């Protein structure tokens, strides 16, 4: 019968040994116990290159590993330099360490000595602690392998010794005796440097011949000391106080071997050494029954504030163990179970169970730590009890809010409405709870900054007052973000927000003068375009909105003038002529570069100054007249008249007769030009006079002209002059200048050489007209300026007389109205707003001008500057749409309109009509990108900015104001949110890449028109992985099966963990933890499919003591890991033959008691558990006196044996196993 092997103290049949961690402020911790060597405790988290121990004894010493005695893994794990410094050659990896703990022996030799003179052997017991480590506390056999070899030149340290060996060759010869109180050596000089600074409380020497001076460390003789065999080995026990290098008070055993300069019997020394050390190592405790420690509860929860100093006490854990002595003495340790980083952050006192902090904690780095608290006794074997520990790190306000940017900048339009959001600042606080809640304030809100306010919770900066760029263009706000911790602990951060107000075209150009008056001499030379005036307008806007351009919109007849569009300099382009145009009335427009643009107009009145550039002109170059010779003195012969187109003195004419003789019987009035008889005529003396008359103006210099006068003297005639016709009609303009001919009347006189003179005898009101008699005609001229309003019609009676006889005629003269007044537009300035969707042909406005003249002079025709969009009815002034409008192409028009009368010459007025195209919501927002993509870490804080989407809307006002929303789209189930004003996409919930690694969000840009128009956009967000998931096995316990007798290295099975992370964060390393069965199996990693193969490292026998093995496999991804129990079941194979020994059946037949049932069973046994045995008789049962069940082996007697006849038989039975 087989019995399962059980380990005492564990109800499940297995003793669970867990890795034992020691956490200390020093990276490597030394300690000594009476049964162990110097202990060096290391952690798997330590990096290569770290110095863990210093064996230096001073200068001129050399150091080397004792390869024969040290564990094989020592040289691969440690590096020993020539200074005696032991450092890590690589980070410890418990999966590659066969024994834990293990021994390392270091030999030290002084350079002045040979062999083993001045030679030490230092044993170090190495403990490796970490997540993959399992420390086996096994009893040690002190008497095993005490001496491994004897070197030719001296003695080497024993493999299993825990004692420091110091071999000293003295200068004295063998047999020499040293005096009392002689200093032999200083033990302190031979101690390793790592412990040389510790204080020695007490030193025990097992020989009465020696003692140690605690001040100097010298071994001194108590009496005369002779060098012989019995005195060559000295045992010293040093009681070392607690120091920085050694965390607890301990003892250091030292063996000092002294031998003289020439000493041939080294073997005797060794034998003496063995005889002295063996008794101490044989003091072994007797094993007693041991029970494991236990905690009062299985789960503990602790809370600790973050940022506490190392050494901060959290709690004390106490386990109970009823065992006496060392079996009941408990050592406590911690094991991080979820995050390997936790291991170095906490420590537990191995004796008291006091849990303390070893590093400052940061809740923002690891908020929760998970541990297994291990209570391990010192029994044989050592047993343990565990409890889970969860430590929550409580937040303190150790983080100030941090703005996403130290400087924000935003540009906004000055027309932005009150209450609009300018931008949103965001400060994140890595704390939690109220410590992470942030409020925002504007620090410098006084003065111009009162135009803004901030939402204290959201951080949105809003417009508080109407902005005016012309008043303030730049704002600099200092924003403070303050957390809501207790008032005494609050932290804050500041950021600067620079706001630039963009100009809107809200100002018209303003002329520096309301009107301009310019006088220009008509003889100005237009060559080179001389500047006659500078028109200046100022626009308070900025940029293109404030850039003023000048143009002449009306009054520039024949393009006499030009204006520089940039400077406003008005120049003459063509010659001026006062005699044609005395003044110009120019309409100047100043227009800015905004959209829509704004303009203003002013009037420039240009007066042309007359110069004497015209000489007087006679109406005819030859004047002829006949005069009766009997006309009296003073008789008016004729009147000559010259007209000078100049004005003023330049047009004042003085008449003088030229080319005359002294007896000329005529004189001329110098002012009127009337030629009279100054001497009595005598036809018989001279019948014809031929002379000249000069007309000279009063200009400087004066100008003159000549005309010829012929006066014929005739006889008196007797025929009456007769008008033909008797009635005349004429129209004359009231603007006619004096001297202007109106009409000529003619009277015929049949007399020879009849001389007819004409006079106005009636109807000449206010002497408005005069008549000149010349060449037989009476030429009626304007005598003075006429006025239509005063007198619009004259009826003149004109008399024709030859001196004696006369006749009359009636002349009707109608005065036509002069074009005195120019048309004047009413209701200016004209500003019209037209919706861009208004149909073609629609009337948008009607201009109206008034002319105070009458008739044709008051009849007005309207004209409009050439443009593509509008046209004007020339009669009514109604403006209609000519082509469809589009505000997004042209946002406004400034068009000049002209009202012109039908006078002669015509007069006009000009005005600008500003037509603003009013936006209608005919454009949907357009995103600047066809699609947006971004990345975000899965551990990003709520509120983290991911990207910014941006759309433009060609409309204006509310139609062009855009808000961003997920309404009607997809926000990733609320994982993201959009800033409605700025389009910033932020994290709205905690993300988990393992839940959702990619988002395809659908956002909308919606304008605020009526009805609203919107455009959708796809936003692809990739969630970047962080290592926040430990690998997970498919089950807490995995069962595997393997047939017995499988060769060593056979595959037991494949297991794999799944890490929901990706990339390097999902790479998994597998290892077998050091458990009771951990050395019986090996594990290899298959990187292609991230699985591990478990293979055997020992022979398996189902019929042996073990049918089942339990190992712990760890899957690690960086600092995160998970463990799984793997139960390996050994399956039976048919590797054993059935066993059957000879046996005897004795049957006693009693009357009436013959058995009819089975009398027994073939006593065969097969060690294979599942083999099926088949039974059969081979020989001896030919008579079939016994019946055998081939399956069960049960035997029945044949009824024929029911008799009183004795019978003996020998049968051969066969048993087969399958």
TrEMBL record:
Membrane topology field: Single-pass membrane protein
Leader peptide range in chain numbering: none
Gene Ontology terms describing biological process: calcium-dependent cell-cell adhesion via plasma membrane cell adhesion molecules; homophilic cell adhesion via plasma membrane adhesion molecules; regulation of anatomical structure morphogenesis; regulation of developmental growth; regulation of multicellular organismal process
Pfam families given in the database record: Cadherin, Cadherin_CELSR2_9th
One annotated GO molecular function: calcium ion binding
Keywords carried by this UniProt record: Calcium, Cell adhesion, Disulfide bond, EGF-like domain, Glycoprotein, Membrane, Repeat, Signal, Transmembrane, Transmembrane helix
Keyword check for Iron-sulfur: no
Localization, UniProt: Apical cell membrane; Membrane
GO CC term (a single one): apical plasma membrane
CDD domains listed in its UniProt record: Cadherin_repeat
Transmembrane segments: 12-32
Stored InterPro entries: Cadherin-like_dom, Cadherin-like_sf, Cadherin_CELSR1-3_9th, Cadherin_CS
Protein name (record): Cadherin domain-containing protein
Chief place of localization: membrane
Cadherin domain: residues covered: 296-403, 404-511, 512-618, 619-723, 724-825, 826-927, 928-1033, 1034-1140
PROSITE patterns: CADHERIN_1 (PS00232), CADHERIN_2 (PS50268)
